[in-house]
């Protein structure tokens, strides 16, 4: 069990839920049902690794079926255990509800250290896990749709798809059984950067709220803000990239082996290449080493982005955190003790369950693409371009002036898949941020944004149960 202070990760999600449930008026029985994990599948299976047979432990949890399919990533990590997968599946239910993605929450995990296996061995493990899911009807476009998570990516999703298709050769919608696939295998453009970009859109929206910024003593906007990113995996990398590209300074980046600091700002791509070449983030040119990665969490900065694993900020180190805004890019990086400390200190915590929802939002777009069997933009792109050209032609004719060549190109452009995915993601994150802030404002007793987010999620899931006629 992942024990934090003196309770598990799932308990900590439950605590946050209970804290929020007080601000709703739902029947206690409905709240019990929403909280409970509906199905937990724990499995063990053998895989031949070299000359030995290894018995692998793995899980898939379906937290809620108020909407189907269930949705959520699969992680490969030695920390995987039943409690963790249950907590992460529950977070998926609330996350999907907040961003209006019509799925129940799910999560999977295989207890392995992926670095210890060759690609061939990982493929065997992934395929065997998939066939276990198929046997128990725990995967399928309408039942349960996995995606990448910590330690997995597009490659693993392609293996899952191929195994599923091999066993369902005539299922026309088979590609929708998993998301986060390579684009060549039915994936959607924009899925790789989706979580990091979603974090950026969410924080940008918060930073554009003058009342919130005034309370924190900060100017509105992203420009010039100092940012610390913990974790240079896919999510951390893209967070750093979008903040830097929009004028923020990423003053520190942390990885498990240590952290680096430069008050002028770091370039994530250069840091990534350095780490690839040297095997460590440390000793990056013109930056200072911080021996322990957790030191980065305690740096003076405007925005702190924990983008690695759960429980990294807890009752012990929270009093030393000096950031003004904490954007939870990871799932569950703060414990409830840390939350209480930040409420008392007036630090704004932008909660995981909506802030990192960019991944599942774009997964939803991918799932829709697979079910519709057509790439986004394919039908309308040229039509829009022809129409725009015509309008520009009319403007030039009527005014007698030529539209600037660069502007012309920009206006004429019809939306590609990537444009539509980014725009759908931006719309989703901006709306979710505003919706949660409205809930928070509507009840001054609500202590923090996480509780407001939970209130919003509970109301949506409960309404949907009520509409199903399950509860009177
Ligand atoms: N693993 C990601 C998450 O925790 C994505 C889930 C998905 O796309 O289904 O949100």
Question: Could you give a short description of this structure?
Answer:
The chain contains 16 helices and twelve strands. It is of the alpha/beta class and 472 residues long.
SSE order and pairing:
Blueprint: H1 9-21, H2 28-35, E1 39-49, E2 52-62, E3 70-76, H3 82-98, E4 104-110, H4 119-135, E5 144-148, H5 154-167, H6 194-207, H7 210-216, E6 226-230, H8 234-245, E7 249-255, E8 258-261, H9 268-278, E9 288-290, E10 303-306, E11 325-327, H10 336-345, E12 348-350, H11 352-355, H12 358-372, H13 381-399, H14 405-412, H15 417-442, H16 449-468
Parallel strand pairs: 3-4, 3-5, 6-7, 6-10, 10-11, 11-12
Antiparallel strand pairs: 1-2, 2-4, 7-8, 8-9
Helix pairs in contact: 1-3, 1-16, 3-16, 4-5, 6-8, 6-12, 6-15, 12-15, 15-16
Glutamic acid binds at residues 71-73, 147, 149, 179-180, 331, 356, 359-360, 363.
Describe the overall structure:
By secondary structure, the protein is an alpha/beta fold. Helices cover 46% and strands 15% of the residues. It is built from 16 helices and twelve strands. The site of glutamic acid has 12 residues, from strand 3 and helix 12.
The termini sit apart by 36 Å
Whole-angstrom Rg: 23 Å
- Write down the CATH class of the largest domain: Alpha Beta
Strand order of the largest sheet: 9-8-7-6-10-11-12
Number of helices: 16
Instruction: List the uncertain runs.
Output: none
């Amino acid at each position: 069990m992942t024990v934090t202070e003196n309770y598990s990760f799932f308990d900590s999600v439950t605590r946050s839920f209970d804290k929020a449930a007080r601000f709703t008026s739902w029947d206690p029985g409905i709240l019990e049902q929403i909280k409970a994990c509906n199905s937990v599948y724990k499995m063990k299976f053998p895989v031949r690794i070299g000359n030995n047979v290894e018995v692998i432990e793995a899980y898939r949890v379906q937290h809620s079926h108020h909407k189907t399919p269930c949705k959520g990533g699969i992680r490969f990590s030695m920390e995987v255990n039943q409690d963790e997968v249950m907590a992460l599946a529950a977070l998926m239910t609330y996350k999907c509800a907040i961003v209006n993605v019509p799925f129940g929450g799910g999560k999977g995990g295989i207890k392995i250290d992926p670095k210890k296996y060759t690609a061939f061995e990982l493929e065997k493990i992934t395929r065997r896990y998939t066939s276990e899911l198929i046997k128990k009807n725990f995967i399928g476009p309408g039942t349960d749709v996995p995606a990448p998570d910590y330690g997995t990516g597009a490659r693993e999703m392609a293996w899952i798809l191929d195994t599923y298709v091999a066993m369902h050769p005539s299922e026309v919608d088979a590609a929708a059984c998993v998301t986060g696939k390579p684009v060549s295998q039915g994936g959607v453009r924009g899925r790789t950067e989706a979580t990091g970009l979603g974090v950026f859109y969410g924080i940008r929206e918060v930073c554009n709220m003058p009342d919130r910024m005034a309370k924190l003593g900060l100017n509105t906007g992203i420009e010039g803000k100092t940012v610390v990113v913990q974790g240079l995996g896919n999510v951390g990398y893209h967070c750093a990239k979008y903040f830097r590209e929009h004028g923020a300074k990423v003053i520190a980046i942390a990885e498990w082996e240590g952290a680096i600091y430069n008050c002028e700002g770091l370039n994530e791509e250069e840091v990534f290449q350095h780490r690839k070449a040297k095997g460590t983030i440390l000793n990056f040119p013109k930056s200072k080493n911080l021996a322990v990665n957790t030191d980065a969490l305690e740096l003076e900065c405007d925005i702190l982005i924990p983008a690695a694993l759960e429980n990294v900020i807890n009752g012990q180190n929270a009093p030393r955190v000096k950031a003004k805004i904490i954007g939870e890019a990871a799932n569950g990086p703060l414990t409830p003790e840390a939350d209480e400390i930040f409420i008392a200190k007036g630090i704004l915590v932008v909660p995981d369950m909506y802030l990192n929802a960019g991944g599942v939002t774009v997964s939803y777009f991918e799932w829709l693409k697979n079910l519709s069997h057509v790439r986004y933009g394919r039908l309308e792109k040229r039509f829009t371009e022809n129409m725009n050209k015509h309008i520009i032609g009319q403007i030039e004719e009527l005014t007698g002036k030529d539209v600037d060549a660069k502007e012309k190109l920009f206006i004429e452009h019809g939306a590609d898949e990537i444009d539509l995915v980014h725009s759908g993601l931006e719309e989703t994150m901006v709306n979710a941020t505003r919706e949660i802030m409205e809930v928070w404002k509507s009840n001054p007793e609500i202590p923090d944004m996480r509780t407001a987010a939970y209130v919003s999620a509970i109301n949506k899931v409960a309404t949907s149960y009520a509409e199903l006629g399950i509860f009177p």
